[in-house]
Amino acid sequence: MQIVIDSANVESIRSLNEYFPIDGVTTNPSIIVKEKRDFLPLLREIRAVIGNEKDLFVQVIAEKAEDIVKEAHYICNEVTGSILIKVPVTTEGIKAIKLLKEEGIRTLATTVYTPMSALIAAKAGAEYVAPYVNRIDNLTGNGVEVVSNITRIFSEHNLPCKVLAASFKNVQQLQNVFLSGAHGITAPPELIKGMITHPSVEIDVNQFKEEWLNQFGNEGHTLLSTQ
Ligand code: E4P
Fold first, then answer.
1. Cβ contact 133:165 at 8 Å
2. Active site residues
3. Residue 115 CA: distances (Å) to CA of 79, 146, 147
4. How many CB atoms lie within 10 A of CB 48?
5. How far is the CA of 49 from the centre of ligand 1 (A)?
6. 10-23: per-residue pLDDT in tens?
7. Spatial CB neighbours of 105, under 8 Å, sequence gap ≥ 6
8. Buried-most residue among 73, 103, 134, 187 (CB within 10 A)?
9. Domain residue spans in the chain?
10. Which atom of ligand 1 lies closest to the CA of 169?
11. Whose C-alpha lies nearest to ligand 1, atom 6?
């Protein structure tokens, strides 16, 4: 099961990677552009923060399959560590996924809106598909149901492709896709932090502390100084 940060903000990634069990970082052109920085230095800084083992997903912008392959080579040559190339599920994109698979370059099929496009991408050799849950919901579809149908098709037909569900606006959507069998999620830092947010936690922690201090006084500020 994977939890991936959908952001290119180095400080957010650094902080979340330090405190939370993070498996990698996904980017897309919009996410990169938001940082207003040069592309390769930004990717290299993210790599330095997460280390070489964790997955860094980088999306192509070329449209023709051969050009997508060239961009994939460029990214793999310029950025170290575990790289996955995000390829949109256009006709050219599917061809590119097949070509990259033959070369052993790992891909994630992105902009997935239907189980059928996920199936084709998986059969072409994508290691992951990324269904866009919130964008599907915005189109009056059912993003969680799409994820559920994709995981069912992959499982029933033994397709070794994983579902990294993407595009979220709330924690309820995250919970629902995990319940529907997604292998992982990629979400903005605030939503990942939101996975442990509940007002009762602070109330409980404060109550425990207050009762402890009432008994042990100032020495009770830490268990280490409590006899
Ligand atoms: C990740 O792979 C996608 O690019 C991203 O999750 C899209 O999210 P959005 O719909 O919030 O832009």
1. yes
2. 86
3. 32, 6, 8
4. 13
5. 21
6. 999 999 999 999 99
7. 72, 73, 76, 85
8. 187
9. 2-196, 198-227
10. 11
11. 167
For residue 45, CA distances in Å to 6, 39, 42, 48, 161 come to 15, 10, 5, 5, 29
128 Cα: distance to centroid of ligand 1 (angstroms):
14
Q: Relative to the CA of 86, which ligand 1 atom is closest?
A: 2
- CB crowding 105-140: b at 16 or more within 10 Å, else e: bbbbbbbbbebebbbbbbebbbbbbbbbbbbbbeee
Number of residues in the chain: 227
Residue 133: which pLDDT band, with cuts at 50, 70 and 90? very high
H/E stretch holding 137 reads: helix 133-138
Q: What integer pLDDT is reported at residue 103 of this predicted model?
A: 98
CB of 173 shorter than 6 A to ligand 1: no
Mean pLDDT computed over 195-208 = 97
Tens of pLDDT, residues 141-186:
999 999 999 999 999 999 999 999 999 999 999 999 999 999 999 9
Mean pLDDT of the chain: 97
pTM equals 0.96
pLDDT at 46 over 70: yes
CA distance 83 to 213: 50
Atom in ligand 1 nearest the alpha carbon of residue 108: 2
For ligand 1, mutation pick of 23, 167, 183, 192 (most atoms within 8 Å of CB): 167
2-196: CATH topology: TIM Barrel (3.20.20)
Q: What is the reported pLDDT for 227? A: 67
